[in-house]
Amino acid sequence: MNPSAKPLSGLTILVTRPTSRADGLCRLIANAGGNAQHFAAIEISEPADTRSRDFIRAHLTDFDIAIFISPTAVEETLGLLPALPPKLKLAAIGSKTALSLTSAGLNLAIQPEGHDSESLLRHPGFQTKQISGKKIVIFRGEGGRQLLGDTLQKRGAEIFYANMYRRSAPSDTSSLNDLLQQADVITTSSNEGLQNLYDMAEDKDILIRRVLVVPGTRALTLARSLGFARVIRAENATDKACMDALKFASLEINNKKTSHKS
Prior knowledge:
This protein is of the alpha/beta class. It has helices at about 25-30, 50-60, 70-80, 95-105, 115-120, 130, 145-155, 175-180, 190-200, 205-210, 215-225, 240-260; strands spanning about 10-15, 35-40, 45, 65-70, 90, 135-140, 160-170, 185, 210-215, 230-235. It has a 5-stranded parallel beta sheet with strand order 2-1-8-9-10, with helices on both faces. It has a 5-stranded mixed beta sheet with strand order 3-7-6-4-5.
């Protein structure tokens, strides 16, 4: 491959992020010479049960710490609660979640170096001595992982889950088969999105023969269990990490093409 060429030239890349999260990555792919196609493997909608959301709207001043799981959690929370209590200490999982908070003019007290619940649990600010007796609200999507809340509860905190949105598989999958036929590489941003994609694909063999970019070790394990053979693990689900993985994928694909010709 010509080192001066754009690194993703000639590649068609299927981006499966939710619609509100796809534009940035698609632009980066296009700028790098790739052909970005989008199919949302997850749709974001109102929570099926709004009771926890209604409760937190009335009682947020009772809490000491608020944890935001995702940028969507930030957007949905600020749409419902445009003004957060000044005494509320804010924590974010992941750089994009942190950016969503700071872009809204909010002061972020805690942001771990990593992009998952485990990294937040390792942060000094969330150890037993710091949170025992504290009331913590976790703003998240309906049906999220329990690890964070369960662990903080064991450390003495009182935990409340505020389900601000619901994730579901899209109802219209009519374009998916054609997109999979065209794709050289597929990017996923979560285990849920990857599982949805697998469940929706009519021809599983076409799907699992594509090069797959996943965000982290948990997604890599799931991809292997589903039968994908060519999986590249990005550091996390950020656009930058995904682009780094896509550039690596491009090198692999082009090297394979070269070896077949020789």
